[in-house]
Design a protein that fits this description.
Elements (H helix, E strand, L loop, with lengths): L13 E4 L1 H6 L11 E4 L1 H9 L6 H18 L9 E2 L11 E4 L17 H15 L5 E4 L3 H9 L3 E3 L17 E3 L3 H6 L4 E5 L2 E7 L11 E4 L5 E9 L2 E6 L18 H10 L6 E6 L5 H15 L5 E6 L15 H5 L4 H12 L5 H15 E3 L13 E6 L6 H8 L7 E6 L15 H9 L5 E6 L6 H9 L1
Helix pairs in contact: 7-8, 8-10, 12-13
Protein backbone atom coordinates (compact mmCIF):
# COMPACT_ATOMS: atom_id res chain seq x y z
CA UNK A 1 0.00 0.00 0.00
CA UNK A 2 1.50 3.41 -0.86
CA UNK A 3 2.36 5.59 2.07
CA UNK A 4 -0.12 8.40 2.70
CA UNK A 5 1.12 11.82 1.60
CA UNK A 6 0.11 15.08 3.18
CA UNK A 7 -3.54 15.67 2.29
CA UNK A 8 -3.77 17.47 -1.06
CA UNK A 9 -6.29 20.20 -1.70
CA UNK A 10 -9.75 18.67 -2.06
CA UNK A 11 -10.24 20.39 -5.40
CA UNK A 12 -7.33 18.51 -7.06
CA UNK A 13 -8.47 15.07 -8.18
CA UNK A 14 -6.20 12.10 -8.86
CA UNK A 15 -6.76 10.68 -12.35
CA UNK A 16 -5.50 7.15 -13.06
CA UNK A 17 -4.77 6.82 -16.79
CA UNK A 18 -5.55 3.65 -18.71
CA UNK A 19 -3.10 2.74 -21.49
CA UNK A 20 -5.60 3.40 -24.29
CA UNK A 21 -5.84 7.09 -23.29
CA UNK A 22 -2.09 7.60 -23.84
CA UNK A 23 -2.20 5.62 -27.10
CA UNK A 24 -5.15 7.71 -28.27
CA UNK A 25 -3.61 11.09 -27.34
CA UNK A 26 -0.02 11.22 -25.98
CA UNK A 27 -0.54 14.87 -25.00
CA UNK A 28 -3.25 13.77 -22.55
CA UNK A 29 -0.50 13.96 -19.89
CA UNK A 30 -0.80 17.76 -20.10
CA UNK A 31 -4.60 18.07 -20.45
CA UNK A 32 -5.80 17.70 -16.85
CA UNK A 33 -5.29 21.30 -15.64
CA UNK A 34 -4.63 21.46 -11.88
CA UNK A 35 -5.31 17.77 -11.22
CA UNK A 36 -2.73 15.04 -10.54
CA UNK A 37 -2.13 11.98 -12.74
CA UNK A 38 -1.21 8.46 -11.67
CA UNK A 39 0.44 6.06 -14.13
CA UNK A 40 0.42 2.38 -13.06
CA UNK A 41 3.42 0.20 -13.98
CA UNK A 42 1.14 -2.09 -16.01
CA UNK A 43 0.30 0.93 -18.22
CA UNK A 44 4.01 1.36 -19.00
CA UNK A 45 4.24 -2.36 -19.78
CA UNK A 46 1.34 -2.13 -22.22
CA UNK A 47 2.84 0.99 -23.85
CA UNK A 48 6.05 -0.96 -24.37
CA UNK A 49 4.11 -3.80 -25.99
CA UNK A 50 2.46 -1.48 -28.53
CA UNK A 51 5.46 0.65 -29.55
CA UNK A 52 6.57 -1.43 -32.55
CA UNK A 53 5.22 -0.74 -36.03
CA UNK A 54 4.18 2.18 -38.23
CA UNK A 55 0.53 2.40 -37.21
CA UNK A 56 -0.94 5.51 -35.59
CA UNK A 57 -1.28 3.58 -32.29
CA UNK A 58 2.42 2.60 -32.35
CA UNK A 59 3.48 6.18 -33.11
CA UNK A 60 1.35 7.48 -30.24
CA UNK A 61 2.76 4.84 -27.85
CA UNK A 62 6.31 5.92 -28.75
CA UNK A 63 5.44 9.61 -28.33
CA UNK A 64 3.84 8.97 -24.91
CA UNK A 65 6.98 7.09 -23.83
CA UNK A 66 9.16 10.02 -25.00
CA UNK A 67 7.05 12.50 -23.01
CA UNK A 68 7.36 10.31 -19.89
CA UNK A 69 11.12 9.97 -20.43
CA UNK A 70 11.53 13.76 -20.66
CA UNK A 71 9.49 14.25 -17.49
CA UNK A 72 11.30 11.60 -15.46
CA UNK A 73 14.78 12.28 -16.93
CA UNK A 74 14.76 15.97 -16.05
CA UNK A 75 13.42 15.50 -12.49
CA UNK A 76 15.88 15.52 -9.57
CA UNK A 77 13.55 15.34 -6.56
CA UNK A 78 11.81 12.42 -4.84
CA UNK A 79 9.74 10.65 -7.51
CA UNK A 80 7.26 9.48 -4.81
CA UNK A 81 6.22 13.10 -4.25
CA UNK A 82 5.20 13.46 -7.91
CA UNK A 83 6.77 15.17 -10.90
CA UNK A 84 5.48 18.71 -11.63
CA UNK A 85 3.91 19.05 -15.09
CA UNK A 86 3.84 22.85 -15.29
CA UNK A 87 7.29 23.39 -16.87
CA UNK A 88 6.91 20.76 -19.61
CA UNK A 89 3.32 21.84 -20.40
CA UNK A 90 4.29 25.56 -20.32
CA UNK A 91 1.76 26.22 -17.58
CA UNK A 92 -1.18 24.39 -19.18
CA UNK A 93 -1.09 21.66 -16.49
CA UNK A 94 -0.24 22.64 -12.91
CA UNK A 95 -0.70 19.23 -11.28
CA UNK A 96 1.82 16.43 -10.73
CA UNK A 97 2.57 13.13 -12.41
CA UNK A 98 2.79 10.23 -9.93
CA UNK A 99 4.37 6.97 -11.10
CA UNK A 100 3.70 3.68 -9.32
CA UNK A 101 6.94 2.94 -7.44
CA UNK A 102 5.84 -0.02 -5.31
CA UNK A 103 3.39 -2.91 -5.34
CA UNK A 104 -0.20 -1.83 -4.77
CA UNK A 105 -2.85 -4.42 -4.07
CA UNK A 106 -6.54 -3.66 -3.80
CA UNK A 107 -9.10 -6.34 -2.95
CA UNK A 108 -11.10 -7.23 -6.06
CA UNK A 109 -14.02 -9.69 -6.25
CA UNK A 110 -12.91 -13.29 -6.81
CA UNK A 111 -14.77 -13.33 -10.16
CA UNK A 112 -12.26 -10.86 -11.67
CA UNK A 113 -9.05 -12.68 -12.76
CA UNK A 114 -6.01 -10.88 -11.34
CA UNK A 115 -3.77 -11.68 -14.33
CA UNK A 116 -5.66 -9.40 -16.71
CA UNK A 117 -4.11 -5.93 -17.15
CA UNK A 118 -7.48 -4.11 -16.93
CA UNK A 119 -8.23 -5.76 -13.59
CA UNK A 120 -4.77 -4.90 -12.23
CA UNK A 121 -5.46 -1.23 -13.01
CA UNK A 122 -8.88 -1.50 -11.31
CA UNK A 123 -7.13 -3.01 -8.28
CA UNK A 124 -4.76 -0.01 -8.15
CA UNK A 125 -7.67 2.47 -8.44
CA UNK A 126 -9.44 0.72 -5.58
CA UNK A 127 -6.27 0.79 -3.41
CA UNK A 128 -5.70 4.52 -4.10
CA UNK A 129 -9.36 5.20 -3.31
CA UNK A 130 -8.91 3.48 0.07
CA UNK A 131 -5.51 5.07 0.80
CA UNK A 132 -6.68 8.64 0.07
CA UNK A 133 -10.23 8.85 1.46
CA UNK A 134 -10.39 12.65 1.31
CA UNK A 135 -9.61 12.80 -2.38
CA UNK A 136 -11.55 11.94 -5.52
CA UNK A 137 -9.73 9.17 -7.43
CA UNK A 138 -11.02 8.76 -11.01
CA UNK A 139 -10.15 6.15 -13.65
CA UNK A 140 -9.85 7.61 -17.17
CA UNK A 141 -10.30 5.03 -19.94
CA UNK A 142 -11.49 4.86 -23.56
CA UNK A 143 -12.62 1.26 -22.90
CA UNK A 144 -16.38 1.19 -22.24
CA UNK A 145 -16.31 -2.24 -20.51
CA UNK A 146 -13.48 -1.09 -18.24
CA UNK A 147 -15.57 1.91 -17.16
CA UNK A 148 -18.61 -0.32 -16.56
CA UNK A 149 -16.53 -2.69 -14.37
CA UNK A 150 -15.14 0.27 -12.41
CA UNK A 151 -18.60 1.67 -11.72
CA UNK A 152 -19.84 -1.79 -10.73
CA UNK A 153 -17.08 -1.81 -8.09
CA UNK A 154 -18.17 1.62 -6.83
CA UNK A 155 -15.24 3.48 -8.41
CA UNK A 156 -15.41 6.75 -10.34
CA UNK A 157 -14.64 6.32 -14.06
CA UNK A 158 -14.74 8.69 -17.04
CA UNK A 159 -14.11 8.68 -20.75
CA UNK A 160 -11.29 10.91 -22.05
CA UNK A 161 -13.21 13.99 -23.21
CA UNK A 162 -10.44 16.47 -23.98
CA UNK A 163 -10.22 15.57 -27.67
CA UNK A 164 -13.97 15.93 -28.17
CA UNK A 165 -14.73 19.13 -30.02
CA UNK A 166 -18.42 19.01 -29.09
CA UNK A 167 -20.44 16.95 -26.66
CA UNK A 168 -23.50 17.19 -28.91
CA UNK A 169 -22.84 17.09 -32.66
CA UNK A 170 -26.26 18.70 -33.21
CA UNK A 171 -24.47 21.90 -32.15
CA UNK A 172 -21.89 21.55 -34.92
CA UNK A 173 -21.59 24.58 -37.20
CA UNK A 174 -23.74 23.99 -40.31
CA UNK A 175 -22.38 26.86 -42.40
CA UNK A 176 -25.90 28.12 -43.16
CA UNK A 177 -28.33 30.33 -41.29
CA UNK A 178 -31.99 31.06 -41.99
CA UNK A 179 -32.87 34.70 -41.46
CA UNK A 180 -36.37 36.10 -41.07
CA UNK A 181 -37.81 39.34 -42.43
CA UNK A 182 -37.20 40.95 -39.01
CA UNK A 183 -33.43 40.54 -39.64
CA UNK A 184 -33.57 43.51 -42.01
CA UNK A 185 -35.56 45.59 -39.50
CA UNK A 186 -33.06 44.85 -36.71
CA UNK A 187 -29.90 45.30 -38.80
CA UNK A 188 -31.00 47.59 -41.63
CA UNK A 189 -30.96 51.01 -40.00
CA UNK A 190 -27.84 51.95 -42.03
CA UNK A 191 -28.37 49.54 -44.91
CA UNK A 192 -26.25 50.11 -48.00
CA UNK A 193 -26.32 48.18 -51.28
CA UNK A 194 -24.40 48.44 -54.53
CA UNK A 195 -23.83 46.47 -57.70
CA UNK A 196 -20.59 44.48 -58.11
CA UNK A 197 -20.59 42.92 -61.57
CA UNK A 198 -23.45 40.42 -61.69
CA UNK A 199 -23.89 40.41 -57.93
CA UNK A 200 -25.32 42.75 -55.33
CA UNK A 201 -23.45 43.63 -52.17
CA UNK A 202 -25.08 44.75 -48.92
CA UNK A 203 -23.67 46.38 -45.82
CA UNK A 204 -25.76 45.77 -42.69
CA UNK A 205 -25.25 46.95 -39.10
CA UNK A 206 -27.02 45.68 -36.04
CA UNK A 207 -27.19 43.32 -33.05
CA UNK A 208 -27.27 40.08 -35.12
CA UNK A 209 -23.92 40.71 -36.83
CA UNK A 210 -21.57 39.53 -34.00
CA UNK A 211 -23.24 36.09 -34.17
CA UNK A 212 -22.40 35.67 -37.88
CA UNK A 213 -19.30 33.93 -39.23
CA UNK A 214 -17.24 34.80 -42.29
CA UNK A 215 -18.40 32.81 -45.35
CA UNK A 216 -21.61 31.75 -43.58
CA UNK A 217 -24.54 31.36 -45.97
CA UNK A 218 -27.67 33.40 -45.15
CA UNK A 219 -31.03 32.62 -46.71
CA UNK A 220 -34.74 33.11 -46.44
CA UNK A 221 -37.61 31.89 -48.55
CA UNK A 222 -40.81 33.61 -49.52
CA UNK A 223 -42.05 35.69 -52.42
CA UNK A 224 -38.54 37.05 -52.91
CA UNK A 225 -36.07 34.31 -51.92
CA UNK A 226 -32.70 35.60 -50.73
CA UNK A 227 -29.32 33.86 -50.51
CA UNK A 228 -26.03 35.59 -49.63
CA UNK A 229 -22.60 34.92 -48.18
CA UNK A 230 -20.98 36.90 -45.36
CA UNK A 231 -17.73 38.32 -46.80
CA UNK A 232 -16.63 40.76 -44.12
CA UNK A 233 -17.35 41.43 -40.44
CA UNK A 234 -16.11 44.44 -38.48
CA UNK A 235 -17.72 44.88 -35.07
CA UNK A 236 -21.46 45.23 -35.62
CA UNK A 237 -21.15 45.80 -39.38
CA UNK A 238 -21.12 43.00 -41.95
CA UNK A 239 -20.87 42.85 -45.71
CA UNK A 240 -22.96 40.35 -47.68
CA UNK A 241 -22.77 39.32 -51.33
CA UNK A 242 -25.52 37.53 -53.25
CA UNK A 243 -24.73 34.06 -54.57
CA UNK A 244 -24.41 32.78 -58.10
CA UNK A 245 -27.38 30.58 -59.02
CA UNK A 246 -25.90 27.19 -59.91
CA UNK A 247 -29.37 25.65 -60.08
CA UNK A 248 -29.85 27.29 -63.50
CA UNK A 249 -28.65 25.33 -66.53
CA UNK A 250 -26.73 28.33 -67.91
CA UNK A 251 -24.44 28.15 -64.85
CA UNK A 252 -23.98 24.37 -64.94
CA UNK A 253 -20.71 22.97 -63.63
CA UNK A 254 -19.45 20.19 -65.96
CA UNK A 255 -23.10 19.55 -66.86
CA UNK A 256 -24.20 19.39 -63.21
CA UNK A 257 -26.71 21.82 -61.69
CA UNK A 258 -27.56 22.27 -58.01
CA UNK A 259 -30.75 20.43 -57.10
CA UNK A 260 -31.35 22.17 -53.77
CA UNK A 261 -30.30 25.20 -51.76
CA UNK A 262 -27.42 23.51 -49.89
CA UNK A 263 -25.93 22.14 -53.13
CA UNK A 264 -26.00 25.68 -54.53
CA UNK A 265 -24.15 26.89 -51.41
CA UNK A 266 -21.57 24.12 -51.84
CA UNK A 267 -20.92 24.95 -55.51
CA UNK A 268 -20.48 28.64 -54.65
CA UNK A 269 -17.74 27.70 -52.17
CA UNK A 270 -16.12 25.11 -54.46
CA UNK A 271 -15.94 27.51 -57.43
CA UNK A 272 -14.69 30.53 -55.43
CA UNK A 273 -10.94 31.15 -55.98
CA UNK A 274 -10.62 32.93 -52.60
CA UNK A 275 -11.78 29.87 -50.63
CA UNK A 276 -8.81 27.57 -49.95
CA UNK A 277 -10.51 25.06 -47.66
CA UNK A 278 -14.02 23.60 -48.02
CA UNK A 279 -15.73 21.02 -45.80
CA UNK A 280 -18.94 19.28 -46.90
CA UNK A 281 -20.91 17.13 -44.47
CA UNK A 282 -23.96 15.12 -45.37
CA UNK A 283 -25.72 11.77 -45.35
CA UNK A 284 -25.29 9.26 -48.16
CA UNK A 285 -26.65 10.52 -51.47
CA UNK A 286 -26.52 14.26 -50.76
CA UNK A 287 -24.07 14.83 -53.65
CA UNK A 288 -20.82 15.63 -51.82
CA UNK A 289 -18.46 13.73 -54.13
CA UNK A 290 -20.32 14.52 -57.36
CA UNK A 291 -20.38 18.28 -56.75
CA UNK A 292 -16.72 18.33 -55.73
CA UNK A 293 -15.58 16.33 -58.77
CA UNK A 294 -17.71 18.42 -61.15
CA UNK A 295 -16.22 21.63 -59.72
CA UNK A 296 -12.74 20.09 -59.75
CA UNK A 297 -12.95 19.09 -63.43
CA UNK A 298 -14.23 22.54 -64.41
CA UNK A 299 -11.46 24.31 -62.47
CA UNK A 300 -8.77 21.94 -63.76
CA UNK A 301 -9.70 21.27 -67.39
CA UNK A 302 -11.71 24.37 -68.38
CA UNK A 303 -10.42 27.20 -66.19
CA UNK A 304 -6.86 25.73 -65.79
CA UNK A 305 -6.75 26.96 -62.19
CA UNK A 306 -5.31 23.68 -60.89
CA UNK A 307 -2.87 21.35 -62.62
CA UNK A 308 -4.54 18.14 -61.40
CA UNK A 309 -6.96 16.63 -58.91
CA UNK A 310 -5.57 14.44 -56.12
CA UNK A 311 -8.09 12.22 -54.38
CA UNK A 312 -7.42 10.23 -51.21
CA UNK A 313 -9.44 8.46 -48.57
CA UNK A 314 -8.98 6.41 -45.43
CA UNK A 315 -8.76 2.70 -46.23
CA UNK A 316 -10.92 1.39 -43.37
CA UNK A 317 -12.97 -1.64 -44.52
CA UNK A 318 -16.61 -1.83 -43.43
CA UNK A 319 -16.60 -5.63 -43.26
CA UNK A 320 -13.73 -8.14 -43.23
CA UNK A 321 -10.46 -6.93 -44.78
CA UNK A 322 -9.69 -8.46 -48.19
CA UNK A 323 -5.97 -8.73 -47.41
CA UNK A 324 -2.99 -7.45 -49.38
CA UNK A 325 -3.65 -6.18 -52.88
CA UNK A 326 -1.26 -6.50 -55.83
CA UNK A 327 -0.11 -3.73 -58.15
CA UNK A 328 0.96 -0.08 -58.00
CA UNK A 329 -0.27 2.48 -55.48
CA UNK A 330 -3.14 3.50 -57.79
CA UNK A 331 -4.10 -0.15 -58.42
CA UNK A 332 -4.06 -0.91 -54.71
CA UNK A 333 -6.33 2.09 -54.08
CA UNK A 334 -8.73 1.17 -56.91
CA UNK A 335 -11.11 -1.00 -54.78
CA UNK A 336 -11.49 1.92 -52.36
CA UNK A 337 -12.30 4.33 -55.14
CA UNK A 338 -15.63 2.89 -56.31
CA UNK A 339 -17.28 6.21 -55.38
CA UNK A 340 -14.89 8.02 -57.74
CA UNK A 341 -15.70 5.66 -60.63
CA UNK A 342 -19.47 5.95 -60.05
CA UNK A 343 -19.34 9.73 -60.08
CA UNK A 344 -17.08 9.89 -63.13
CA UNK A 345 -19.65 7.76 -65.01
CA UNK A 346 -22.32 10.36 -64.20
CA UNK A 347 -20.09 13.29 -65.18
CA UNK A 348 -19.02 11.60 -68.41
CA UNK A 349 -22.64 11.01 -69.47
CA UNK A 350 -23.30 14.74 -69.32
CA UNK A 351 -21.26 15.12 -72.52
CA UNK A 352 -23.81 13.84 -75.08
CA UNK A 353 -22.68 15.92 -78.03
CA UNK A 354 -19.45 14.05 -78.72
CA UNK A 355 -20.95 10.56 -79.10
CA UNK A 356 -19.17 7.39 -77.94
CA UNK A 357 -15.76 8.38 -79.32
CA UNK A 358 -15.97 11.83 -77.75
CA UNK A 359 -16.97 10.34 -74.41
CA UNK A 360 -14.09 7.85 -74.53
CA UNK A 361 -11.61 10.65 -75.26
CA UNK A 362 -13.08 12.77 -72.45
CA UNK A 363 -12.84 9.83 -70.05
CA UNK A 364 -9.15 9.33 -70.87
CA UNK A 365 -8.49 13.05 -70.43
CA UNK A 366 -10.29 13.10 -67.08
CA UNK A 367 -8.40 10.06 -65.79
CA UNK A 368 -5.08 11.60 -66.78
CA UNK A 369 -5.84 14.59 -64.53
CA UNK A 370 -7.11 12.65 -61.48
CA UNK A 371 -4.49 10.98 -59.28
CA UNK A 372 -5.50 8.56 -56.54
CA UNK A 373 -3.08 8.58 -53.61
CA UNK A 374 -2.82 6.62 -50.37
CA UNK A 375 -2.77 8.49 -47.05
CA UNK A 376 0.20 6.37 -45.94
CA UNK A 377 2.65 8.26 -48.17
CA UNK A 378 1.47 11.84 -47.57
CA UNK A 379 3.97 12.84 -44.88
CA UNK A 380 6.55 15.34 -46.14
CA UNK A 381 4.81 16.08 -49.44
CA UNK A 382 3.85 19.54 -50.72
CA UNK A 383 1.11 19.99 -53.33
CA UNK A 384 1.40 23.00 -55.65
CA UNK A 385 -1.63 24.22 -57.65
CA UNK A 386 -3.57 21.03 -56.95
CA UNK A 387 -7.13 20.31 -55.84
CA UNK A 388 -6.82 17.86 -52.92
CA UNK A 389 -10.03 15.93 -52.18
CA UNK A 390 -10.11 13.99 -48.89
CA UNK A 391 -13.04 11.56 -49.05
CA UNK A 392 -14.51 9.74 -46.01
CA UNK A 393 -12.72 12.30 -43.82
CA UNK A 394 -14.81 11.34 -40.78
CA UNK A 395 -12.47 8.33 -40.28
CA UNK A 396 -9.43 10.58 -39.74
CA UNK A 397 -8.17 11.64 -36.32
CA UNK A 398 -7.52 15.37 -35.72
CA UNK A 399 -3.76 14.66 -35.90
CA UNK A 400 -4.07 12.88 -39.29
CA UNK A 401 -6.26 15.72 -40.56
CA UNK A 402 -3.59 18.25 -39.59
CA UNK A 403 -0.94 16.17 -41.41
CA UNK A 404 -3.03 16.17 -44.61
CA UNK A 405 -4.18 19.80 -44.65
CA UNK A 406 -0.64 21.07 -44.02
CA UNK A 407 0.43 19.40 -47.29
CA UNK A 408 -1.17 22.29 -49.17
CA UNK A 409 1.29 24.56 -50.95
CA UNK A 410 0.63 27.80 -52.87
CA UNK A 411 -2.41 27.69 -55.15
CA UNK A 412 -3.80 24.46 -53.66
CA UNK A 413 -7.40 24.00 -52.52
CA UNK A 414 -8.37 21.29 -50.01
CA UNK A 415 -11.89 19.80 -49.90
CA UNK A 416 -12.91 17.44 -47.05
CA UNK A 417 -15.99 15.26 -47.53
CA UNK A 418 -17.66 13.00 -45.02
CA UNK A 419 -20.61 11.78 -43.00
CA UNK A 420 -19.93 11.80 -39.25
CA UNK A 421 -22.68 9.22 -38.62
CA UNK A 422 -20.63 6.60 -40.54
CA UNK A 423 -17.38 6.32 -38.57
CA UNK A 424 -15.52 3.02 -39.00
CA UNK A 425 -12.28 3.84 -37.11
CA UNK A 426 -12.03 2.36 -33.57
CA UNK A 427 -12.07 4.89 -30.68
CA UNK A 428 -13.27 7.74 -32.92
CA UNK A 429 -16.70 9.19 -32.21
CA UNK A 430 -18.78 11.90 -33.85
CA UNK A 431 -17.46 14.37 -31.29
CA UNK A 432 -13.76 13.48 -31.67
CA UNK A 433 -13.56 12.86 -35.44
CA UNK A 434 -10.99 14.89 -37.35
CA UNK A 435 -13.78 16.13 -39.63
CA UNK A 436 -15.76 17.56 -36.70
CA UNK A 437 -12.50 19.07 -35.44
CA UNK A 438 -11.68 20.99 -38.63
CA UNK A 439 -15.26 22.17 -39.18
CA UNK A 440 -15.24 23.70 -35.69
CA UNK A 441 -11.69 25.12 -35.86
CA UNK A 442 -11.96 26.63 -39.37
CA UNK A 443 -15.35 28.33 -38.95
CA UNK A 444 -15.02 32.06 -39.36
CA UNK A 445 -11.71 31.99 -41.26
CA UNK A 446 -11.85 34.26 -44.32
CA UNK A 447 -10.58 31.56 -46.72
CA UNK A 448 -12.64 28.56 -45.60
CA UNK A 449 -16.26 27.56 -45.98
CA UNK A 450 -18.51 24.79 -44.73
CA UNK A 451 -21.92 23.46 -45.74
CA UNK A 452 -23.94 20.64 -44.22
CA UNK A 453 -25.91 19.08 -47.07
CA UNK A 454 -29.34 18.12 -45.81
CA UNK A 455 -31.37 16.62 -48.65
CA UNK A 456 -30.57 13.35 -50.39
CA UNK A 457 -30.74 13.48 -54.19
CA UNK A 458 -29.66 9.91 -55.01
CA UNK A 459 -33.05 8.21 -55.46
CA UNK A 460 -36.40 7.85 -53.72
CA UNK A 461 -35.32 4.33 -52.66
CA UNK A 462 -32.10 5.61 -51.03
CA UNK A 463 -33.96 8.45 -49.29
CA UNK A 464 -36.62 6.13 -47.92
CA UNK A 465 -34.01 3.58 -46.80
CA UNK A 466 -32.11 6.33 -44.98
CA UNK A 467 -35.27 7.25 -43.05
CA UNK A 468 -36.74 3.84 -42.17
CA UNK A 469 -33.73 1.50 -41.82
Amino acid sequence: MPRKKSAPSSAAKLFVLDTNVLMHDPTSLFRFDEHDLFIPIITLEELDGHKKGMSEVARNARQASRFLDELVGGFTGDIDDGIPLSEKSQGAATGKLVLQTQAIDGALPASLPVGKADNQILSIVMALHTAQPGREVVLVSKDINMRIKARALGLAAEDYFNDKVLEDTDLLYTGTREIDTAFWDRNGSRLESWQDGNRTRYRVSGPDVPDLYLNEMLWHEGEQPFTARVTDIAGKTAELVTLRDFSHQKNNVWGIVARNREQNFALNLLMDPDIDFVTLLGQAGTGKTLLTLAAGLTLTLEQKRYSEIIMTRVTVPVGEDIGFLPGTEEEKMAPWMGALEDNLDVLNKSDDDGGDWGRAATRDLIRSRIKVKSLNFMRGRTFLNKLLIIDEAQNLTPKQMKTLITRAGPGTKVVCLGNISQIDTPYLTEGSSGLTYVVDRFKGWAHSGHVTLARGERSRLADHAGEVL
